[in-house]
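Suppose you are handed a protein chain with no further information: no name, no annotation, nothing but its sequence. What can you learn? This example shows the usual starting point.
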Amino acid sequence: MHDIHLTYSRVVVDGASVLWRVRLFRDDLEKALAVYTKNPAFKVSTPGADSVFAAYFNAEVPVTANGKRLTGRVLQSGKDAEVTDQDMWWYLIELPSPSTVMTFTTRVGLLFEHFTDQRNVVTLLKMPGEGRHSLYFVRDDARMQTLSF
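A reasonable first move is to predict its three-dimensional structure. Written in structure tokens, the prediction is:
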């Protein structure tokens, strides 16, 4: 068990490509997806789990580029082998944009429905040049955050 409720995302924006890698505590993730699917036995190893997470992500993490809503799809997922003291899970999500991303808007609402102390941290790298931006989301602040490049 853990005392903190946190997701960490690393987003790379390069031209019209948006790649999003998110890490979550596995127990928190499975709790959320069990409620989302109305299946109390849901596990990340359940067949089709990546598609379920993609639907949950798209519902809880609205992303727009240049004012157009993007839809993500899971490219990969797995247990985070770098973390040894907690069971962490990660997803790599692709959100293609129809044109070069000049403005990026999002609100990461993952797990807010389950934990009042949930925090969601995003580090965004804008390529080329590796321009670094940080975004921080809490449950009680429903505002979208926008970056302009």
